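testing teh design pipeline on a random one, pls ignore if ur not involved
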């Protein structure tokens, strides 16, 4: 399986609309495997299709980063159907390499999504898994880390990106 280059913040494909996944075939399976390979190699806990320039409502998650096949989760056309509580956690993103910021997410969520075969499933998650699910679903709505932070925190974050871009450490 091939890995795909991960596109970084500033690329318009990260903010472009994402079309629903409608065809669950061999091509989709191959794309999903490439997405897992790309996430594991990064390494990262998950990857959304727009991050490799594919504007589809598709993401993969694996909190074990390739160690436990049971943790491989495919999210096609996911939506959050319930949420509870709030918790503040540090978060990073493969499209912002080397950067982290802290903001609030729901403590627990329920997500409805299709798997690689098109079968609908409900996923109940809390803490890290809930955070990771929210993060990937955000990507499918064109929402990035930076959209969650405001004011001075956001200014400082952009300054850190600019510094990395200048030194060539970005991408
Ligand atoms: Zn991300």
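output:
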């Amino acid at each position: 399986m091939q890995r795909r280059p991960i596109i970084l913040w500033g690329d318009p494909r990260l903010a472009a609309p994402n079309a629903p996944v409608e065809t669950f075939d061999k091509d989709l399976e191959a794309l999903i495997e490439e997405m897992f390979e790309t996430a594991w190699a990064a390494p990262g806990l998950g990857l959304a299709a727009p991050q490799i320039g594919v504007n589809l409502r598709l993401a993969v998650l694996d909190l074990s980063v390739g160690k436990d096949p049971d943790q491989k989760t495919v999210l096609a056309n996911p939506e959050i159907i319930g949420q509870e509580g709030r918790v503040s956690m540090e978060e990073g993103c493969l499209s912002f390499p080397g950067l982290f910021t802290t903001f609030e997410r729901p403590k627990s969520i329920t997500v409805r999504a299709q798997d690689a075969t098109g079968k609908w499933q409900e996923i109940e998650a809390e803490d890290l898994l809930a955070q990771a699910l929210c993060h990937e679903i955000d990507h499918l709505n064109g929402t990035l880390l930076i959209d969650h932070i405001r004011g001075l925190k956001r200014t400082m974050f952009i300054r850190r990106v600019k510094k990395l871009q200048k030194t060539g450490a970005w991408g």
